[in-house]
Amino acid sequence: MFDTHELGRRPGAMKRLSRSVEAPGSPVLGIDGVIGVPEGAPVELDLRLESVMEGVLVTGTARATAEGECVRCLEPLTVEVDADFQEMFSYPDADDRGRPTAEPADDAEDDEDMFFLEDGLFDLESVLRDAVVLALPMQPVCKETCAGLCSECGIRLDENPDHHHDAVDIRWAALQGLAETVQDGEKDNMGGAEPGVDEKQEK
Name one Pfam family in it (predicted). Predict the structure, then answer.
């Protein structure tokens, strides 16, 4: 939670702050199963809080180190995350000091997408999650030129650039076997005919 009491409610007031927080665990801060900031890892925040008529406008940058694996060769990798974000945290309704309740259904739906100050405090976790996910690569690679793994045996191609397998087209495999059978049969026939030819020659 971040406190805005020192900022006050006078429009135009501004405050800067830096803080190091621990990355939350479940769900992971990132893309689950692909890449993310490990639970408890430090996340460095640089924030600017600005008081406006509607509430407090929060602009900031989050820096952290995400861990995952290359989608091509499955080797572990790390990515430096530098995520920018900006979000408005609205003041609660001035009449009842609670979250505003809107009568029209459309307004109620809009409220679901809004963030509110609670007793002068705001929580950045959901905003931070969205910002980090957008800053991370959807398909992380250890390097752009990574050749990946051999589809036949799984060997890492970067370490074995000359590695290859003789390609066999399964559509021709049956015909290849038939051709070999025919060749073997011709040899047998030729072998059986030769003695007969010799016998005629002897007569």
Answer: YceD
